[in-house]
Amino acid sequence: MDTVGYSKWDGRLEEVPGGHWGRWGQRPLLLALALLVVTILWTLVLSVLFSKASTERGALLGQQDLLRTNSSKQTVVLGVLKEEIRACNSCCLGTQAQLQTVRTKLREAQSKLIQQESALKELSERVTQSLAEAGRDRENIRSELFRALEGVRLGNRSCEECPKSWLPFQGSCYLFSTQRATWVEAQRHCEGARAHLVIVGGLDEQGFLSRNIGGRGYWLGLRAVRRARRIQGYQWVDGVPLSFSLASQQHLRQTTAATGIRGSPMTRWGARTAS
Question: Which residues form a coiled coil (predicted)?
């Protein structure tokens, strides 16, 4: 088959060598050139991508190194914290042991304090009881001494019997009068009978008086000691201060039962209150 081609030049047909097959021979060259260009482009793209990946990889490696460094530092810090925690735990255990010891000592001290308070209370009760007994003894001695002195002064006629209407008790005579009188009048009446208002010298005498007053009120042989118009205390008619071992202030307010005293021949007389 004839492969002669033609080309147009200066208006004339010119025969071209190769003809139609010459153009087909240029196509592989173009394809190769295109492939080369594509390859170059892909190479450039891959180079750019690789460079970017390398940069990112370097950054990641740097961050990884930084993380490792930070992790190492944090590990060291964590170790220090663990040591501090162990030290704190040990300190807390020691403090707890000391606190337990202090609590034990405190309980022992409280127990000793309770025992001492109990012993002090018992001692206080004994002292109070001893003082009360001493007060009673003093009152008894004073009363007996007063009676003895009165007996000596009046001729020591203690063996005489009590007058009519008088009640004997422990060597003295008592009169529970039914006449109304003031304290001063009652005392004068006692002195006229060589007696005085009753001086309570003991619990036995107080019981005797309480059994015989019959629910009525009587004067006691007590005077109020006043200073600046205020009552500072009380004393018996014999001048001895009142001892509260036998009678309390409440008893003095609520009880006016009294008689006079007659030591030996002395008579005991009590005037009823006007109230």
Answer: 99-133
> Other C-beta atoms within 10 Å of 126: how many?
10
- For residue 132, what are the contacts with CB-CB under 8 A and spacing of at least 6? 245
Q: Is the pTM of this model over 0.70?
A: no
**In the numeric block, which tokens belong to residue 96?**
């707890």
CA–CA separation, 49 and 39 (whole Å): 15
- Per-residue H/E/C for 161-220: CCCCCCEEECCEEEEEEEEECCHHHHHHHHHHCCEEECCCCCHHHHHHHHHHCCCCCECC
How deeply is 235 buried, as exposed, middle or buried, from its count of CB atoms within 10 A (0-12, 13-18, 19+)? middle
Question: Which domains are seen in the chain, by residue range?
Answer: 154-272 (3.10.100.10)
The answer to whether residues 139 and 243 touch, using CB atoms and an 8 Å cutoff, is yes
CA atoms of 84 and 31, how far apart (whole Å):
76
Question: What is the DSSP code (8-state) at residue 261?
Answer: E
CA distance 122 to 114: 12
Contact of 195 with 267, CB cutoff 8 Å: yes
Residue 159 and residue 173 in contact, taking contact as beta carbons nearer than 8 Å: no
Residues in the chain where the model's pLDDT stays below 70? 1-25, 147-148, 150-160, 243-275
